[in-house]
Amino acid sequence: MDMRPRSHPTYLAFVVHRVSGLLLALFLPLHFWALGTAISGEARLDGFLRWAENPLAKAAETILVILLAAHLAGGLRVLALEFLGWRSRQKDMVAASAGIALLVGLVFLLNVV
Amino acid sequence: MSATRQPASTKGVNRSHRTRARAQTHLWVVQRVTAMLLALAVVVHLVMIVTAVRGGLSAAEILSRTRGNEAWLAFYVTFALAAGLHGAIGLRNIASEAIGLRGRGADLAWLTAGLLTAGFGIRAAIGLYA
Amino acid sequence: MAEAASLTVSVWRGAEQGSFARFEVPARANQTVLDVVTYIQRELDPSLAYRFACRVGMCGSCAMTVNGRARWTCRTHVRKVVDADGALELRPLANLPVIRDLAADLAPFFDKWSRARGTFQPKDAPDGAVPEDFAVVPPASKQRREADAGIECIGCAVCYASCDVVAWNDEYLGPAALNRAWTLVNDVRDGGRAERLDAVAGDAGCHSCHSTQSCTERCPKNLDPSSAIAGLKRALFWDTLLGRR
């Protein structure tokens, strides 16, 4: 794809929003199904949580938390534009979105590790 | 190219276009309303995640918070419903633009997928409550 | 920046299928991209097809894809877009059928303009009659300011060529048509609001916009079609929720 016409910050914000949304939407049924199955008893839930302690699951969790934060922040950008009619502060919004996503990811990492 | 082009009608938006457009508008409205709900719910969820993982997760700790608590049940049921629908409509938009999957049948299929996903989420929420 | 003595210009030749032809064009001070195209057509290859009229940024007919981005060639200085080795790449506008070489067919663009109800429908004077009195529209009113924000569009299709949603969905009306619809929705003298909102709703209309804001980024007149589309979404949102449609 030719990136020359697509190199502005709001385009990047769209790409991040779309990719994170796609991944989250695909993960969601899995998340719900696994939780629903695990929650059938305390012992079973503990077993699931212990399984989730492995480094691969932890890394996946961190990525999901960052995706969720990024999608939330990008969604606030879209809602502000559509419902509050924000115009000129769009670029600031993109930067703020990135900041929020990064921050949440870092806080999560610090807590987990 | 221009010889085969249909001239755009300027009088009376045709009926089937209007019906289709209204159904599509409703999907968009559902996606934005769920987005607003999710904006709040996801903040709560993220705060829960980063505080709950402090010192490791245990089933007892999670269940002690949620068992018999109607407020958490209502929160998670609403959250699951909103997330299921929001995600499915998002996937619908991506599929229509990326692979040209469009039409009423596809829309109904996506809505079903969304409600099914929400159903799994509600099952999990009930598991936390009961 | 040191300027090369000559420019290496790759020019699209052909229709949908075609290839780039290369031309060496002498570099000049204050040269516009349109000057370069005109030089090629007059001095190097008279068979080159392109379109222009006013040469001063009023008519909007000379828009092309210059080094990957849609621009008015008459208002684009070569030195602003050319890289250090003096390379220029010219294509017809994207997202439109190509007639030949650098001339795109704007018919679908204008068709969508009328499909979005881009025509003023006087409320007080149906059938084109002259109203009895002047309409009083305070310039500072909120609606008039919304209309004014988008009214200067001259239909050059730069936004349309820059919009990915147009590329992904044939039916999508595009930024210019939707921007026009929003100026009319805000025109208190217009009586076509309900029909116009119907025409711009749904997947072919404002609801497919993803706010990439390429239109706003590229508009040579610094208009903000992205915000106009957001306005249409907002109007349709409340009309739908409150059962006004």
TrEMBL record, chain A:
Q: Which GO terms describe its molecular function?
A: electron transfer activity; metal ion binding
Gene Ontology BP term (one)? tricarboxylic acid cycle
Annotated cofactor note? The heme is bound between the two transmembrane subunits.
One Pfam family in the UniProt entry? Sdh_cyt
UniProt keywords (A-Z) are:
Heme, Iron, Membrane, Metal-binding, Transmembrane, Transmembrane helix
* Top-rank taxon, per record: Bacteria
Transmembrane feature ranges: 62-81, 93-112
State the function annotated in the UniProt record.
Answer: Membrane-anchoring subunit of succinate dehydrogenase (SDH).
The name this protein goes by in its record: Succinate dehydrogenase cytochrome b556 subunit
Q: What family does the entry list?
A: Belongs to the cytochrome b560 family.
What are its GO cellular component terms?
Answer: membrane
Q: How does it assemble?
A: Part of an enzyme complex containing four subunits: a flavoprotein, an iron-sulfur protein, plus two membrane-anchoring proteins, SdhC and SdhD. The complex can form homotrimers.
Q: Where does this polypeptide localize?
A: Membrane
The UniProt entry lists the main location of this chain as: membrane
Mind telling me which Gene3D superfamilies this protein's record contains?
Fumarate reductase/succinate dehydrogenase, transmembrane subunit
* Origin species: Neoroseomonas lacus
What this protein needs as a cofactor is: heme
Sites where the protein binds heme: 71
UniProtKB/TrEMBL annotation, chain B:
Name the needed cofactors.
Answer: heme
Q: Where in the cell is it found?
A: Membrane
A single Gene Ontology MF term assigned here is: metal ion binding
Q: Where are the transmembrane segments?
A: 27-53, 73-95, 107-129
Gene Ontology CC: membrane
What InterPro entries would the database entry show? SQR/QFR_C/D, SuccDH_FuR_B_TM-su
Which Gene3D superfamilies does the entry mention? Answer: Fumarate reductase/succinate dehydrogenase, transmembrane subunit
Keywords linked to the UniProt accession: Heme, Iron, Membrane, Metal-binding, Transmembrane, Transmembrane helix
Q: Name one Pfam family in it.
A: Sdh_cyt
User: What function is annotated for this protein?
Assistant: Membrane-anchoring subunit of succinate dehydrogenase (SDH).
UniProt-recorded name of the protein: Succinate dehydrogenase
Source organism (scientific name): Neoroseomonas lacus
TrEMBL record, chain C:
This entry's Gene Ontology molecular function terms read: 2 iron, 2 sulfur cluster binding; 4 iron, 4 sulfur cluster binding; electron transfer activity; metal ion binding; succinate dehydrogenase (quinone) activity
Cofactors that this protein relies on: [4Fe-4S] cluster; [3Fe-4S] cluster; [2Fe-2S] cluster
- Pfam families noted in UniProt: Fer2_3, Fer4_17
- Pathway(s) the chain acts in: Carbohydrate metabolism; tricarboxylic acid cycle; fumarate from succinate (bacterial route): step 1/1
Q: Which GO terms describe its biological process?
A: respiratory electron transport chain; tricarboxylic acid cycle
Checking Gene3D superfamilies in the record gives: 3.10.20.30, Alpha-helical ferredoxin
Q: What is its EC number?
A: 1.3.5.1
> Per UniProt, which keywords does this protein have?
4Fe-4S, Iron, Iron-sulfur, Metal-binding, Oxidoreductase
Report which superkingdom the organism of origin falls in. Answer: Bacteria
Span of domain 2Fe-2S ferredoxin-type = 5-94
Q: Partners and quaternary state?
A: Part of an enzyme complex containing four subunits: a flavoprotein, an iron-sulfur, cytochrome b-556, and a hydrophobic anchor protein.
What PANTHER family does the database record attribute to this sequence? SUCCINATE DEHYDROGENASE [UBIQUINONE] IRON-SULFUR SUBUNIT, MITOCHONDRIAL (PTHR11921:SF29), SUCCINATE DEHYDROGENASE IRON-SULFUR PROTEIN (PTHR11921)
Which family does the record claim for this protein? Belongs to the succinate dehydrogenase/fumarate reductase iron-sulfur protein family.
Name the chain's protein: Succinate dehydrogenase iron-sulfur subunit
Its source organism is: Neoroseomonas lacus
Write the gene name: frdB
